Amino acid sequence: MNANSLSGKTAVVTGTTSGIGRAVAIMLANNGAKVFGGDIAPATDDDPTFTDLNITTTNCDVTAEQDVIGLVEMAAGHSGNIDILVNNAGVGMVKQIPDVSEEDWDFCMGVNVKGPFLCSKHAISYMSAGGSIINISSNAGLLPRAHDPVYSTSKGALIALTRSLALCHSPDQIRVNAVCPGPVGETAMMDQGLQETGNPAAAYQATIAASPIARAAGRMIHVDEIAAAVLYLAGDAALMVTGTSIAIDGGKSMGVPPTPSESD
Description:
Rossmann fold, 2 domains, alpha/beta, 7 strands, seven-stranded parallel beta sheet, 264 residues, 44% helix
């Protein structure tokens, strides 16, 4: 039996319009899941890939509880059960603490921490033994980063939420894990960040250089590589995996990478 088969399972994925969320929704659907996606700007009805895979999308602001309830209940109405929840919706924030307004703080914490809390809160009641919650955190949650301290704080809090939920719901055999991406290319967050530097080409190379394997490979991480980790955590192959944070960051969270001369 294929341990990655999700046939007959119902999945909820947030932030499905583009980037990691879109790749995750497609990966889960390609492996048999019925996927319900929520996004503040949902995919259009004429999205051929989502249409072919029978992926249903709806408008969902993850910081608005009624939106979250609507998404969860829509998914639960399909089979009466939710097997997989992927809390992917997130926002970045590159500002130093003295420049962060109260509204900035609330926005970043709202999407990156409150959103997964609300989605988990309402999805858990529809989950049975073997249910899986996967939070998309970041290598910024594994180690502090000087250029985006509020974002790092929010992703660290998401890892703490992951571990707490995993412990609380272990008697129910509901697994909760986090995936911590590093520099992922072709996402709205990464593209915006590169553009804001004023020199996207140089920023691209500097971003790759900060992750040892990414630098050696000469590329950023692909969204499908993140989606593959989500697929593993969602499937039966990971029935004994809970409370973990899987870093898919090209080794960025290990520390300062060696210079070329040091690695010869």
